[in-house]
Amino acid sequence: MAEEMKVEIIGKETIKPSSPTPSHLKIFNLSFLDQIIPAVYTSLVLFYPNNINIITSGQISDHLKKSLSEALTLFYPLAGRVKDNTVIECRDDGAQYVEAKFNGLLSTFLGQQHKDEALIRQFLPAEIESREAGTWPLWLVQATFFNCGGVAIGICVSHKLADAATLSIVLKTLAGTAVPDFEAAASYYCPGDTFSFAPAPATELKRVEGVAKRYVFDKSKIAALKAKFASDSVKQPTRVEVVTALVFRCLMEASISTTGSSTDPVKPRYSHLTQAANIRNRVEPPFSPNSVGNLVAYIALQAENETYENSSEPLEHQLQDLVAKLRQGIEDFTENKAKRFRGEDGFRAVVEYLGELQLNSRNDMQYFVFTSWCNFGFYEVDLGLGKPICVTVPSSSYENAIILTDTIDGDGVEILLTLSKENMALFENHLERFLHYLLIFPNAIIPAKHSQNNVNQIRLQSIHKLEASISTTGSSTDPVKPRYSHLTQAANIRNRVEPPFSPNSVGNLVAYIALQAENETYENSSEPLEHQLQDLVAKLRQGIEDFTENKAKRFRGEDGFRAVVEYLGELQLNSRNDMQYFVFTSWCNFGFYEVDLGLGKPICVTVPSSSYENAIILTDTIDGDGVEILLTLSKENMALFENHLERFLHYLLVH
What we know:
The protein is of the alpha+beta class and 655 residues long. Helix content is 31%, strand content 21%. Among the domains are: 7-189, Chloramphenicol acetyltransferase-like domain (Chloramphenicol Acetyltransferase); 466-654, 2-Layer Sandwich (Chloramphenicol Acetyltransferase). The strands form 4 sheets. A 6-stranded mixed beta sheet has the order 1-6-7-8-3-13, with helices on one face.
């Protein structure tokens, strides 16, 4: 039995700043925006391969502790303690450093199809929801060493001072490539005497016993979605905009589908998207890019579920509309709100704006909080170990939270969602359905695998090429328009002969089962498409059963050879000029993903394409539940096939 993957703590120590904090910096005022943030840790895990074999884990630890000590001198508030949720007393209490080991290989951990969220959190030096985040320590670092020499660096920084942008500044300071700026936020957002104000209590977030899942939209998916979602209003949507619009639309659909529960009996009438926005470059004049603090505002988009439920607009038009509303919301906020957040009345403008957000609260509304961690350069952080090959935001237990992060190439987006079990099931169903419709090939998004070799596979049941044959008009090389479509299906006869051959019998123990269909019958049929496909499935099943009972059982014994020869002759007799032939071969259920050659199990198994026309091969996906198809068709037939596949799936899955 494989050994359980887990993290074992080796030791902990407190790291002090390399130089004492000057007396005039002993008190750091938390801004109003910092005070209302809940006492949790902003956390991240960066995974580094063993690029430099001569460096030991001890040398890496020494280097990290030295870097942490030097960074604390620059980031002096993170060596202090929060008092009364209003100030940080900067008395050089220090940060915590944790050393740990992992009983396995980095490649094994990253190669998992479904990551264990609890295991990911073991790479962190503290629980995200720790009360200590509101007092001390404010900065913790954990180095976890793998057997291969790779290392995971887990970072926890108190959210009382650090949003995602600040976390990026913290890491760059640790890497020696940035210097933090503390003046802007504290100077402009400290409560003054201009109007009555009481110290803000920390926000309490709603926890849920739900599930967290990750999905990757790679570069090709993003490009396809951008093309679909572009409109006159937004000609060049960003990757964050298209993913946010798609995910929000799926969440709206889940809200429409939900029936309420004992804990939340009201079926939501509205879906409310709250999008966190970095205000550093939106105020006027802008703050420094290295400004520290929770310099974030929240932009709201509210939608009535019934409007979308009853809409006759095509899905892509609905999503174009959502992208346009997201873009307009950002522009309106920047122009009419954010520019007022700096100056003499900046603090008042911020408080008034947050009050407006509170006024929108209502019982029949489902709230979703989107936060983008994209474009903060986490994949560029070199802590003396090279650049990370994977950067992961750990999941939390806060309901309806959606975090967007970069993929390693910077062109894709990974999303992390935490939803109730019911809403997660509904969300996944609608996400797959929408992607089936939106993309020419319905490559269902699968849980993220942090590997450069991710494979997006086509999840389909066997689909005929009848419509493509009906649509073709013939050509100079093949002028006859096919009257019939002929499916030849390869069948393993090892378990069909009587008595059966051994499962490990070697040789080409395959027979071919034929299904012939007259194209005109389907072209002129008044039957619904699903009835036609039900009929084809029944004929495929009947063909297998008839072959097994009336043919295959005779293939072994005294007259076995004669029976095989006669059967192959019958197949030849069916050949005719007005027939289009398609050969289907299933490579499913042969266990290729279980083959361990001493390297662990493969993360991708691929059948190479060939130049034989009208050949269709079906193979397993890595989870064993999906199917990837590989087709080789003429250019004309491929174009027709794609068109009909999209049309059929639109009809079967969307309407």
